[in-house]
Amino acid sequence: MDFDFTSAIILVVVGIVSGTWGALIGAGGGFIIVPLLLIFFHNQNPAVPVSTITAISLAAVCINGISSCIGYLRLKRIDFKLGLIFLLASIPSAIAGAIFVNKIDNQFFQFFFGGILIAVALYLIFKPKINKEKPITKKTGLKSKIIDSKGTIFTYTTNLKIGSPIIFSFGFLSGMLGIGGGIFNVPIFVILLGIPMVIATATSMFILVGTSLVANITNLLQGDLSGYYLIAVSICIGSFIGGQIGTKLAKRINSVWIGRGLSFTLILVGIRLITANIINF
Prior knowledge:
This protein is mainly alpha-helical. It is built from ten helices and two strands.
């Protein structure tokens, strides 16, 4: 495809928007980047393999995760102990997912990813309200106590026997889909494991850096980014900027409501991907 100054600016803007949303809800922005690239490449060059699209997205997700972690470190909201445990659980499956995507047909990938987006959107719309001031606690599991930069104390207990296998499973999807896993991790952390929302978001970004990094190394070894480095760099620049913006907004905006507003866009994009090969848009 042709790459010029205008294309670079557009891709930087895509990175900023996706990175900002991703940092706010702990998802890294890959769930925005991948469908946009799928639509873009479908119009420009349908022969581009999905492995290249997911590789570009994972590069941006990793940079966004690093940028977001810098911000969340200032807010003191990352649970490093829990994050390292779940990171080790998800790395092997993330590598497997990055390898497996090379064997997937483009049309199937669009259908599958479109369905994932719609499912995530429905979760964002219908999930229960989360009380951030009174986190859920359990009697058994890994006990955590986090005091953030505002002096707010979060105490909770995480059942690793339940969490680790689930995080391992979703690590495969994150590597395969090119979205880093945050879009799956945050709902699991909050709804199933009872981790406070603000801690779940920040810790998800920490895990996302590790899983996307190993998936990126796998992609580079497979040559998935060959010929598309300028596209990846342009989106990465925007993703880093977006990570800084998102973490600053996180101090002022309720990310739950932002996620719900974004969900309607995800539904539209998901439908667009599913129907792309049926109806000529």
